[in-house]
């Protein structure tokens, strides 16, 4: 319970960093960390398959796509970033209230599913899950990381040359 | 045979080719990739003729890869091998800088691993992972020459691809929710026993929409003409030849045949989307003056034929879709090789600024005419047989109206492709093209090779039918 609570607090802190940081690149990295922490939580809450998918998609694939997209954009100047942050806070002031009140409401609603659903019968050991049950996804992760590395190498080379 | 090596060899090749002793040796990377694509073609033929020798997972308990291969896989793996080989031949002339060539080959290797993974997996989540690998590699390939327009096209491609990804991922989440895991067989079983009809329909609809975006089916085709026309020549050959087709069309074929089944609602959706895509793609091609954009719209139209064939919901329709998939890979790659050759020689893509090039570039003109005739479905070329099969499948399944659309659109295809040939290669020689000479030997070799395959697959149709197409009918899931 204590570990879960620590993970939950860590999750919130990193998520906050993802939203508040000025750099898009750091945001993408923070999102990957959020997913990694969420994966740990899912493993601890006995949802290993969902955890592996979360790890594959949100900590692996999506950040690479984000980073690739960010490298294709023109970075904002410091002045523009500050302006954008001010506007964002004014425009989305209600979001924290919605999130907090949703949390409170869902706490009091009995969320029981009436639908009979088959449970995922998988071993809970992460090593067995990744290496014996879903090794192709693991290979996929390596491939996508290599593509990300080449993407950054190719696109940042242009930026360096321009500078 | 060791089919899992089609994923593992590219991965290890990239790792080894980027180790210090071999680093930046573009020639070594290039010949390694060339050998790999040839080995893939040879492996497919070996598997087709020796089906008893197929060993999907050679590593036993050490590395248990959940892979499977059938007749559908072999057709697509063959297309990937051929298009990869041709892409490398074209890249030799268009990716000049040494380091860039090395990077290009490395990313192409990764893209090939992604495409082969899509074809060999039997798990919908792993399919998604490999779809992302191939798509991400495509973004990088599009911007390899770091041109502004290419960056813009890649950005549009990324945005639409993310939309498709979101749809597919939501669909996979629903399937996991209903079936308990993401294996094709489990989801297929869920369609039979599950009472969650609404969720299944929602999940199927989302996945099909995602596949439509990846394939460039109307109305999700907006990104395709730009991505094709702004990419470097070899990347266009690769994208048009195999990437969009594997990402969108193969995924659609595999999922419909192995997971959803040919349900009436899905068939009707495919028939309608196919007919609209054929017609609007062909009309779009008629309105263009840019060589590559004409071919891009033509690709959209031809993709419509494949979707239409699949929508017939019969074994013959499935075979026709796969055969047209292969034919389109070949003749469209050939047309894009020719467009690259003419662009390199004339320094323009505007067909109005060309004309009479046949006298200067006879081999390019001749192979281009062959590709156009095959695309339009003129006998005895390969395109004729696949279109004939599509029309027969549509009539036999009780859709004569859609068959009529397919035939009429074929006439439209003939019109815009012959108009393209006339404006580029025939008529009086444009004064600006007086100094033009035939394309470089490697490009002519690539074009002639593809033309030979187009003619060969048409002339030796009985052999193709018995070896590749009839086995597909046996795995029709109904």
Describe this structure in words.
The complex is a heterodimer of chains A (163) and B (478). Chain A is flat, with a radius of gyration of 19 Å. Chain A is 79% helix and 0% strand. In chain A, helix 1 runs antiparallel to helix 2 and helix 2 runs antiparallel to helix 3. Chain A has 163 residues and is mainly alpha-helical. The radius of gyration of chain B is 21 Å and the shape is globular. The model of chain B has no long low-confidence stretch (mean pLDDT 88). The interface between A and B is large, with 40 and 50 residues.
Produce a short descriptive summary.
Chain A is mainly α and 163 residues long.
Which keywords apply here?
heterodimer; A: 163 residues; mainly alpha; B: 478 residues; 18 helices; globular
Instruction: Report the largest inter-chain contact.
Output: A-B, 40 and 50 residues
What's the rounded overall pLDDT mean of chain B?
88
Net shape of chain B: globular
Count of DSSP-assigned helices of chain A? 7
What is the H/E order of chain A? HHHHHHH
Strand content of chain B: under 5%
Q: Give the number of DSSP strands of chain B.
A: 0
Low-confidence stretches of chain A: none
Topology, element by element:
The complex is a heterodimer of chains A (163) and B (478).
Chain A: H1 2-20, H2 24-44, H3 48-71, H4 78-91, H5 95-108, H6 126-133, H7 135-162
Chain B: H1 5-17, H2 26-49, H3 71-94, H4 98-120, H5 124-142, H6 148-179, H7 184-193, H8 197-215, H9 223-230, H10 233-260, H11 264-286, H12 291-311, H13 315-346, H14 362-376, H15 382-396, H16 400-425, H17 441-459, H18 461-474
